[in-house]
Amino acid sequence: MKAILNGRMYNTDEAILIYSKDVFDADGNDIGSNDLMITKSGHFFEAKTSNDQNYRPETPITSMTKKDAIEFIHGQLLSDGDETIINKYLFSEKLEELQ
């Protein structure tokens, strides 16, 4: 999935997945996911995907600031692997310059 927002290209095929949240309907059925991703140039975005014909995200790709990205994972139960990739991309000194 691709989108151009504010002159920047966001492409889920070329970006790195940092964290994924499953989306459930009122009955508890898994209907899609909201993914926190980062571009090769260090820009965060959220990509919303659907695996249910009744769930169609209004804005499938949304650009995010680093603060937005941290809020995206706030309060989530993370595995060791999740913590590693989140630390690498959200708390890296190098990325401070890009945001």
Order of helices and strands: EEEEEEHHH
Largest sheet: 4 strands, antiparallel
Radius of gyration: 14 Å
Question: Uncertain segments of ≥5 residues (pLDDT<50)?
Answer: 95-99
Fraction of residues in H or I helices: 10-25%
Mean pLDDT: 84
The secondary-structure class comes to alpha+beta
Shape, principal axes of CA atoms: globular
Contiguous helical run count: 3
Strand content: 35-45%
Strand order of the largest sheet: 3-4-5-6
Instruction: Please report the distance between the alpha carbons of the first and last residues.
Output: 23 Å
Q: Using DSSP, what is the number of strands?
A: 6
Give an account of the 3D structure.
This protein is of the alpha+beta class and 99 residues long. The chain has helices at 66-73, 80-90, 93-96, and strands at 2-5, 8-11, 16-24, 30-38, 44-50, 61-64. The strands form 2 sheets. Strands 3-4-5-6 form a 4-stranded antiparallel beta sheet. A two-stranded antiparallel ribbon has the order 1-2. The chain is globular and about 40 Å long.
SSE blueprint:
Layout: E1 2-5, E2 8-11, E3 16-24, E4 30-38, E5 44-50, E6 61-64, H1 66-73, H2 80-90, H3 93-96
Antiparallel strand pairs: 1-2, 3-4, 4-5, 5-6
Short description:
With 99 residues, the chain is α+β, with helices and mostly antiparallel strands.
Properties at a glance:
two-stranded antiparallel ribbon, single chain, 99 residues, 4-stranded antiparallel beta sheet, globular, alpha+beta
